Amino acid sequence: MTNWTPRCVIAYRNLKQICHDHIENKCDIEVVDVLEHPDLARQEQIVAIPTLFKTWPKPERVLVGDFSKVADVLRALDVPRWLHG
Amino acid sequence: MSSARKQTNSLPTLEKVPTGIQGLDEITGGGLAKGRPTLVYGSAGSGKTLMGMEFLVRGITEYNEPGVFMSFEETEGELTSNVGSLGFDLKGLVASKKLLIDHVAIERSEIEETGEYDLEGLFIRLNSAIDSVKAKRVVLDTIEVLYSGLSNTGIIRAELRRLFRWIKDKGVTTIVTGERGGETMLTRHGLEEYVSDCVIFLDTRIKEELSTRRLRIVKYRGSAHATNEFPFLIDANGVNILPVTEVRLDYPASNKRVPTGIAALDVMLGGKGYLEGSSILVSGMVGTGKTSLAANFVDAACRRGQRCLYLAFEEAPNQIIRNMQSVGIDLQPWVKKGLLEFHATRVSEQGLEKHLLSIQRETAKAQPTITVVDAVTDFGTIGTDVEVRQMVLRLVDFFKASRMTTMFTSMSQRAELEETRVGLSSAFDTWIHLSNVQGDLERNRTLVIIKSRGMAHSNQVREFVLTDRGVEPVDIYASAGGAFMGTARLAQMAADEAADSALREGVASRERQMEAKGRALEARIAAMRSEFEAEAKESEIVLAGERAHGKVLAEARKALGKNRGAQRVSGRRRGKA
Question: Which residues of B259-285 are buried (b: 16+ CB within 10 A; e: fewer)?
């Protein structure tokens, strides 16, 4: 995310909501302001903002957008499988 | 390497940045627009990436302007090895922090789009890259990949618009590459919408397995630019564009003359030969003597100690030398002395553009005063008439700008055909056409100067022969019946001679006749005179006689009279009778 722009704020809230609603908050969210760490953008191949990296459990996934499309988020995060073992 | 160019309009001069790419600065009048994006588009393999990279590399090595290459397709490793063959040391430049390569990987399958987003990440990366090497030049190659990686075209479009505004604000001169589009758009995704200041198209065509590359400046706002297509090559030095006539209309003109090597031909050309720095076309069918004319030209130049370059596409140099020796022109010693250089190439070896480039290179290396291209029509086998014509135009222009006097030979049947078929003749200053005229029992060689700019020249069709001094025009023989050549000439000469002598003979005999008459007349007069004299003498005698007789009679009468008188006296006076 970058500097808590309105979209980033919305995205964060949406993400928190999803975590609460669908995965019982069993998640770790690390927020990075790319403006403060521009090298990271290059390293992690970040182009779109906001970008979410799902690092665990596998498979790793990249999500971009403000997470307003909940179904897509869940699908991308592989929630059903993950949650129920 | 920027060239000074007069601006023909009153708009504020656009500041330009020289690219260092061979020919590009010339045709753009100084380079690319400073601080603004230029769109370079073309199909795959057209040279976009290379051109972009060369722009950056030369920017660093020649103009001390660091650069950033943002690559959306190739990785840093791939780029390094791809341009390695061009002698661009990317590794070194990156290490010395003059060049930064950022490979942007957007794998659609890995990304899930879950709502609204922007491409600020891209901006951040680009900004940080520019700042870290203090770049003045940027290449984005090829940003259209964003469309394949992300599905929200609306966002992409908006962000691109924002990006190019950002670039202008940042003040970096940027090359943006794009893929060639279809019927409705220049590029696949319409990049020209955002990058409209300067647009360059790289066109690659394959013709008979030989690829020809062309560059066209589609648009260059705020700048006068050349509008033609320019062939270009990618070789060991990078991109090479060959500029065209439009850019070079101001060659230095010369009034000096160059001897043709044939005294009578010099005379036909207004007295002194070809114009220095001019382009000469020698056309004619096989065996009409084109090579001999060229050989005479070259031979004369070498004698003057001038360097010559003979570009042979028709025959091998050894063949040419042998053939010329048979007409008394020995080129071998000039080759030995290094004054004459032959450069033979098989036409089918490469495409027109490559030929153009290699001719340029050979010429630059040899630095000749005179160049011969033998034969220009051979290129017809690797290009259409229009393509060959374009290539020849460029060649002529190149030679003229280098102030070289050049002779091109061309195989053609008739002078008129030359004009219409390929339309080459307008490019040349002097055009000499050779042909073999078929008479009753023989062929005679003729030469005619169809045109020669900048001088008064003979327009007669001259007969010539190939002697042991090469081409030798024969004196014109004109008679009441016209001009003649060959044995017809000799025949007419004889006839004329005979007629002349007959005339002379007639005059003489009349003179003789008159003389005889005169003499006869004189004789008659003399005869008459003597007759007259004889008569006169005769009559004189007769007269004298008659006078004498008359006197006698008178005396006798007198005496008689006296006698009658004396009878009275008596005969005493007898003694006095």
Answer: bbbbebbbebbbeebbbbbbbbbbbbe
Decide if B210 contacts B382 (C-beta within 8 A): yes
Q: B16-248 architecture in CATH? A: 3-Layer(aba) Sandwich (3.40)
Q: Which of B175, B176, B228 is nearest to B203 (CA)?
A: B228
Minimum-distance CB partner of B117 among A38, A42, A48: A48
Rounded distance, CA A58 to CA A60, Å?
5
CA dist B482 to A9, B5, B263, B477, Å?
Answer: 103, 56, 24, 9
Domain boundaries, chain B: 16-248, 257-476
Report the pLDDT value the prediction gives residue B479, as an integer from 0 to 100. 63
Is B472 in the active site? no
Measured between beta carbons, the chain A residues lying within 8 angstroms of B124 are 2, 34-35, 38, 41, 46
Q: Is the peptide bond before B231 cis (omega within 30 degrees of 0)?
A: no
**The two three-digit tokens of residue B265, written as one number:** 């031909």
Tens of pLDDT, residue by residue over B472-520, are 888 766 666 566 666 667 777 777 777 777 777 777 888 888 888 888 8
Where are the domains positioned within chain A? 6-83
Q: What superfamily in CATH does domain B257-476 come from?
A: P-loop containing nucleotide triphosphate hydrolases (3.40.50.300)
3-state secondary structure of B112: strand
Query: What CATH code would you report for A6-83?
Result: 3.40.30
| Measured distance CA(B1)–CA(B30) in Å, rounded | 8
Q: Give yes or no: B65 in active site.
A: no
Its pTM stands at 0.60
Chains A, B: CB contacts within 8 A come to 95
Q: Which residue in B120, B127, B128, B153 has the most chain A C-beta atoms within 10 A of its own C-beta, making it the best mutation to test that interface?
A: B120
- Contact between A48 and B102 using a beta-carbon 8 Å cutoff: no
The position carrying tokens 């995060």 is A77
Catalytic residue among B54, B179, B192, B314: B314
Cα-flanking dihedrals φ and ψ of residue B82, to 5°? -65, -40
Tally Cβ neighbours within 10 Å of residue A21.
11
Calpha distance A56→B471 (Å, rounded): 91
